[in-house]
Design goal:
Mean pLDDT of chain B: 90
Radius of gyration of chain A: 23 Å
Distance between the termini of chain A: 36 Å
Largest sheet of chain A: 6 strands, mixed
Number of helices of chain B: 10
Low-confidence stretches of chain B: 1-8
Number of domains of chain B: 1
Number of strands of chain B: 0
Largest sheet of chain B: none
Strand order of the largest sheet of chain A: 5-6-7-3-8-9
Low-confidence stretches of chain A: none
Strand content of chain B: under 5%
Largest interface: A-B, 34 and 26 residues
Order of helices and strands of chain B: HHHHHHHHHH
Mean pLDDT of chain A: 90
Structural class of chain A: alpha/beta
Oligomer: heterodimer
Distance between the termini of chain B: 36 Å
Helix content of chain A: 25-40%
Number of helices of chain A: 11
Number of strands of chain A: 13
Shape of chain A: elongated
Structural class of chain B: mainly alpha
Radius of gyration of chain B: 19 Å
């Protein structure tokens, strides 16, 4: 049974649909990503999962619980880190951890948790004096302190420096390794590609695609990118006739083709036939970035 | 040294303890709620003519008349100025929302805030009464039960009014503005500028229908040894119901 089930979820604000028929299911132990441009309805979707918003229509279940009607039971199995929230400015890290631990019937021991999150030497620091990264780590600790089965992390690494971001990623992998299911909202492709088992790309309130990161890249047009500098000019007609070609770009003497593995083979054959050497030939997989742009462009059309 | 918190300690108690500890870290609130009312009484009491019995105050001294005013002052500052700032800040900064994702309801935080500010206002009142008794020979209230009842109703009305200010203010800035707009009339009605005993009859009657005017008159009666008039207590009770109802009707969690 999926840990999180969202079926045909709808939510409008002032007559404007923000979430317009979103469905997905998250399996136990998965890191499931929700990826999308700003204003796509990502946060509203997870707020319905957290029971902070009441859906207009559709069904949401977390470990079989209705997040609105069974909110208190839900809060015992679901830990949340919200996109914009703070704690009392003068509350220290230790006090926050101790306080939130009392909220749960079977809380995790906060000491090892603080240790794992690198908060041990910040225990007597007040919330307002923490750096952005330290605040985020504290919020992760608070999301985990109740010993949840599911954690929802919304824009966790926004505003973090690259070093802190990478540390946070490692942490999320550790969390999953301990058996917790992770629902991760992000707009960083690199983050989604590195962490997520599966990703739902949400655009304009709908699921534009749902697949593994490599599946998303593969299904988008131009999943393979070939670049080279030919030793002699190539016939434009021959290039455009290449199979499964998504695009051709010329920059100075360099040619960039995007297509599939089929395109790669055909280019090599073409070059051999014309006795042209390809200098600095590079064949690479497209990134999730490319796939994302491709997917959200399709949805716009 | 703290230990790993046991879940049975009671979540509400834990929230209350945390909020009380946070309150102690606010030197401004501590001064204005706990010390300022007594300090004002000490300053007034230091003026020799204010320690003379006055015929137009029914034989009382000015310092006697200002005791209930100082008692109400802590409640007004705490309820109307400090508490709405804290509550709207908690809403504005997503602290209430954060709490809504835990098994504790955000209303627990509101109740804890009311208990902290209510407790501080009562402590301030007791300090004022003690200093008045020891420093200026102001007799303790002669009708103690009536006085305690009037005191509790006055604290409740201050908290109810503060809750309504918090409910109606979308931001801490607006809470500050509305708080001040209500603060000065409340101070006037409590008798800060002109004690209720010195007000002309018509004015005293009008002021007697306001929350703090009624509270001031109820406290005066109990201090003088009478059971506070049911009219004043009724006015207080009505305001408490009305303001609490309006606050819970309009309060926004986010």
């Amino acid at each position: 049974m999926p840990v999180i089930e969202v079926t045909d979820l709808r939510k409008s604000y002032g007559g404007r649909p923000v979430v317009d028929g979103v469905s997905f299911a998250v399996e136990e132990g998965e890191i499931f990503g929700i990826l999308g441009p700003n204003g796509a309805g990502k946060t509203t979707t997870v707020e319905c999962v957290e029971g902070l918003r009441v859906p207009d229509a559709g069904r949401v279940r977390v470990t079989g619980l209705d997040p609105v009607a069974e909110h208190e039971q839900l809060t015992r199995v679901l830990g949340a880190q919200l996109q914009e929230s703070e704690l009392q400015a003068k509350l220290t890290v230790r006090e926050a951890l101790e306080l939130y631990a009392t909220f749960y019937p079977r809380p995790a021991d906060w000491r090892p948790l603080a240790e794992r999150l690198g908060l041990t030497d910040k225990l007597s620091t007040r919330f307002a004096k923490l750096s952005g990264g330290q605040k985020q780590r504290l919020f992760i600790a608070l999301a985990l302190i109740g010993g949840p089965r599911v954690v929802v992390l919304d824009e966790l690494t926004t505003g973090l420096d690259p070093r802190a971001r990478r540390d946070t990623w490692q942490l999320i992998e550790d969390v999953r390794a301990s058996g917790v299911t992770v629902l991760l909202v992000t707009h960083f492709m690199e983050e989604a590609q590195r962490l997520c088992d599966r990703i739902a790309v949400i655009d304009k309130g709908r699921v534009a695609a749902l697949d593994t990161p490599s599946g998303l890249i593969r299904r988008s047009a131009g999943s393979t990118v070939i670049t080279f500098t030919p030793s002699a000019p190539l016939d434009e007609g021959d290039l455009n006739a290449l199979p499964a070609l998504a695009s051709v770009e010329h920059k100075d003497a360099r040619i960039t083709l995007s297509g599939t593995d089929e395109t790669v083979n055909a280019v090599i054959t073409l070059l051999a036939r014309c006795h042209i050497t390809a200098h600095q030939l590079r064949v690479s997989d497209a990134t999730l970035d490319d796939a994302f742009l491709d997917l959200t462009k399709e949805a716009a059309a | 040294m703290s230990t790993v918190a046991a879940p049975r300690t009671g979540r509400s108690t834990a929230v209350l303890k945390a909020e009380a500890r946070l309150f102690r870290r606010e030197p401004g609130a501590l001064f204005w709620i706990l010390l300022f009312p007594t300090l004002l009484l000490v300053i007034l009491g230091s003026i020799p003519s204010f320690r003379q019995h006055q015929a137009d105050l029914g034989g009382l001294r000015t310092v006697d008349v200002y005791v209930p005013v100082a008692v109400l002052l802590g409640m007004i500052v705490g309820g109307l100025q400090s508490m709405p700032q804290t509550l709207t800040g908690y809403r504005e900064r997503g602290i209430l929302r954060r709490m809504a994702t835990t098994p504790v309801r955000p209303s627990t935080l509101l109740s804890a805030q009311m208990l902290v500010y209510g407790g501080a206002a009562l402590a301030s009142a007791l300090l004022t009464l003690a200093v008045a008794r020891l420093g200026f020979d102001v007799p303790l209230p002669k009708q103690p039960f009536g006085y305690v009842l009037a005191l509790l109703l006055a604290v409740m009305v201050a908290l109810a009014l503060g809750s309504l200010v918090s409910a109606l203010s979308p931001t801490t800035k607006i809470a500050g503005a509305i708080g001040s707009a209500v603060f000065f009339p409340s101070m006037f009605c409590a008798g800060v500028w002109l004690p209720v005993q010195s007000m002309p009859d018509v004015m005293a009657r009008i002021v007697g229908h306001t929350p703090f005017g009624a509270a001031a008159q109820a406290l005066n009666q109990a201090a003088a040894g009478h059971w506070p008039g049911w009219g004043h207590l009724g006015v207080l009770a009505m305001w408490i119901l009305l303001l609490t109802g309006a606050a819970s009707r309009w309060f926004r969690w986010e």
